[in-house]
Amino acid sequence: MTITTGDTLPDATVLTMGAEGPEAVSIGDKLKGRTVVIFGLPGAYTGTCTTAHVPSFIRNIDALKAKGVDEVICLSVNDPFVMQAWGESTGAAAAGITMLGDAEASFTKAIGMEFSAPPVGFVNRSKRYAMLVEDGVVKVLNEEPGPGQCDISGGESMLDAMA
Which residues are catalytic? Predict the structure, then answer.
């Protein structure tokens, strides 16, 4: 079942790169008592993800934080090594976006956002979405209706939804 507005997000363990290598991160700990934007996407270094989705949040991170967002998280079904390199190559890490790898797709599956498209090499990947979460509860959920689109899940749309 896909998560909807008003639902509490399930806890899951995802990965980030720390000083000593991969480190486990609890989604529940990241959300507790905080306002967070999470945007999920099919894959690091893929076309729309790299040229549209991540840049839209880089452009809008300061405005989102001015509206009370404590953290902006980019989540993809990739390993933390790839997420770190992608964050560095896109400028997302320098902009302050937290890059998290849902390597086993556990969080993505738990919220019902997984899909597979074997002809293009996508198996158990994440649909494209963005959500505003307050203390673990989904307040805004913008899921793209089709592949390759980045309109309602982009940073500008999230900012508008918070108005």
Answer: 49
